[in-house]
């Protein structure tokens, strides 16, 4: 059986730890390959290669960097289908969803192609007699990305195009559950002409993560994953003096007002809740019905969930694929059961799904649970599965208070026909990304992505302008070129403008 190896210094590198992990096909429930797991020795090789490459890459002109970025963009665009097929095979999401993931990642590459403009500094002429001040930004050095299974191409591409464009070198630790997309991207970087060592991939588990966090040559770490791991990485890495952006978990609410188009809202919320089997940090997992809209909304959501076509990822008719592993399916199944035990009512039960010919696959049908309250496990925990809870409240104010009392603050949405209501909502919720009649408000590449509260550790969101800021640091230069005949002696007071 094939073993997926690391990518270090521009080429495939065999594992040295002797450890490996299975990679499954979630649609069949069968193992399709192994992935090598790195230890500290392997991580050090990758970081050392990146450190050597930084010496020259950081001095490349912006024009040379951009040419390579444009070449990489063309290659990713040309091979998008191959990348999507690998994602679907290892993750389980349907092909069209995988294709969309590649496209959203590609948009960050396109944004990074504009790095000459994004890195422009500032200049102030004649701030004092004969004195000018200007600023510019420099790369940090070797930086690392630790990325989750749910977007094996897009989330890494939220990180490394901007980091590399800014002049850094990069070590990626992707999820060991679906590692092949990262190797495909590494090969495309090499084909685009990126120098050896600028982009490296090490597969692994906690041992590899800790080795990256503790490595003295790693200057910054970007992470996307669960809140407990985000907090762990942030605490340990910042203690070591590193710059960190660690994006954590979510509990995303969609608030439906009585004046909303209920059929439209149900259609949008169903897609946001059940797309990619709910394995998205921006998935809507709680629909909050305000006033008397709850009954109509529940009927519509039940109909959408019951009609959803669940099937293998490579079936063009499938609307939702399996979960990533059997353990993930069992965890979501337990949370559904806890909802009924704690007083909620399952109105569409995905646990009953049986897919003929794919009995060993990790499938779970779309599930709707009514009567959910804030003290239930199915509400409090990030489910990461195709489960939508319906919570009923009496007013917009109560809905806003519910959202603000939740420890997460990643994304939220409101469905209404009132601009006044929408404005009250967007100003009132303590959440980083807000949709108005848009259920999954993921910003475009030229804005930054990130939540509030327990959904983000660190002060910088990912990609966009804040990504450029995260991967660089500023220098400010104060310059004077005095003519020989007007040179004066030293000044012993603090400098002031004259």
What report would you give on this structure?
- This protein is an alpha/beta fold.
- It has two domains: 3-248 and 455-477, Aldehyde Dehydrogenase, Chain A, domain 1 (3-Layer(aba) Sandwich), CATH 3.40.605; 252-436, Aldehyde Dehydrogenase, Chain A, domain 2.
- Helix content is 38%, strand content 23%.
- The chain is built from 16 helices and 23 strands.
- The protein has helices at 40-57, 62-78, 80-91, 95-112, 115-118, 154-165, 180-192, 206-214, 227-239, 262-274, 294-307, 326-341, 377-380, 396-405, 419-428, 464-470; strands spanning 3-4, 6-8, 11-13, 20-25, 30-36, 122-128, 131-139, 142-146, 169-173, 199-201, 218-224, 243-247, 252-256, 284-290, 345-348, 367-370, 387-393, 408-409, 411-415, 433-436, 452-453, 456-457, 472-480.
- The strands form six sheets. A seven-stranded mixed beta sheet has the order 15-16-17-14-13-19-20, sandwiched between helices. It has a six-stranded mixed beta sheet with strand order 10-9-8-11-12-22, with helices on both faces.
- The radius of gyration is 25 Å and the shape is globular.
- The model has no long low-confidence stretch (mean pLDDT 96).
Radius of gyration over all CA atoms, rounded:
25 Å
Major sheet: 7 strands, mixed
Query: Approximately what portion of the residues adopt beta-strand conformation?
Result: 15-25%
The level-1 CATH class of the largest domain: Alpha Beta
The total domain count is 2
Task: Describe the global form.
Answer: globular
Distance between the termini: 75 Å
């Amino acid at each position: 059986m094939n073993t997926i190896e690391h990518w270090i210094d521009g080429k495939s590198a065999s594992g040295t730890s002797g450890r490996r992990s299975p990679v499954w096909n979630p649609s069949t429930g069968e193992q399709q390959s192994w992935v090598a797991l790195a230890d500290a020795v392997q991580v050090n090789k990758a970081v050392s290669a990146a450190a050597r490459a930084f010496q020259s890459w950081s001095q490349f002109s912006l024009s040379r960097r951009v040419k390579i970025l444009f070449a990489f963009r063309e290659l990713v665009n040309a091979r998008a289908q191959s990348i999507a097929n690998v994602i679907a095979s290892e993750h389980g999401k349907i092909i069209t969803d995988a294709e969309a993931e590649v496209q959203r990642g590609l948009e960050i590459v396109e944004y990074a192609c504009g790095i000459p403009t994004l890195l422009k500094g500032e200049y102030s002429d004649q701030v004092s007699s004969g004195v000018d001040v200007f600023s510019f930004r420099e790369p940090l050095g070797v930086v690392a990305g630790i990325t989750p299974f749910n977007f094996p191409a897009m989330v890494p591409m939220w990180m490394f195009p901007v980091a590399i464009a800014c002049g850094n070198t990069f070590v990626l630790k992707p999820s060991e559950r679906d590692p092949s997309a990262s190797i495909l991207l590494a090969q495309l970087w090499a084909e685009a002409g990126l120098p050896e060592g600028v982009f490296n991939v090490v597969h692994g588990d906690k041992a590899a993560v800790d080795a990256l966090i503790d490595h003295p040559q790693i200057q910054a770490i970007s992470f996307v994953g669960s809140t407990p791991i985000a907090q762990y990485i942030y605490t340990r890495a910042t203690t070591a003096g590193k710059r960190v952006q660690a994006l954590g978990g979510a509990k995303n609410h969609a608030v439906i007002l009585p004046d909303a188009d209920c059929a439209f809202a149900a259609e949008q919320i169903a897609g946001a809740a059940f797309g990619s089997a709910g394995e998205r940090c921006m998935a809507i997992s709680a629909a909050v019905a305000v006033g008397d809209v709850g009954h109509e909304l529940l009927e519509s959501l039940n109909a959408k969930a019951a009609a959803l076509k669940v099937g293998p990822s490579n079936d063009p008719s499938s609307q939702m694929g399996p979960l990533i592993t059997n353990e993930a399916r069992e965890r979501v199944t337990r949370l559904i059961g806890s909802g009924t035990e704690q007083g909620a009512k399952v109105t569409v039960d995905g646990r009953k799904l049986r897919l003929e010919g794919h009995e060993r696959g990790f499938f779970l049908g779309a599930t709707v649970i009514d009567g959910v309250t804030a003290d239930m496990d199915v509400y409090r925990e990030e489910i990461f599965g195709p489960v939508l809870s319906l919570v009923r409240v009496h007013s917009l104010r109560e809905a806003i208070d519910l959202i603000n009392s939740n420890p997460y603050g990643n994304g939220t949405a409101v469905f209404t026909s009132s601009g006044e209501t929408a404005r009250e909502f967007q100003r009132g919720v303590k959440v980083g990304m807000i949709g108005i009649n848009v259920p999954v408000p993921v910003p475009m590449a030229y804005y930054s992505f990130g939540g509030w509260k327990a959904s983000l550790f660190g002060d910088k969101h990912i990609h966009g302008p804040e990504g450029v800021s995260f991967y660089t640091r500023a220098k400010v230069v104060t310059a004077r070129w005095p003519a020989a005949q007007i040179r004066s002696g030293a000044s012993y007071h603090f400098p002031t403008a004259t």
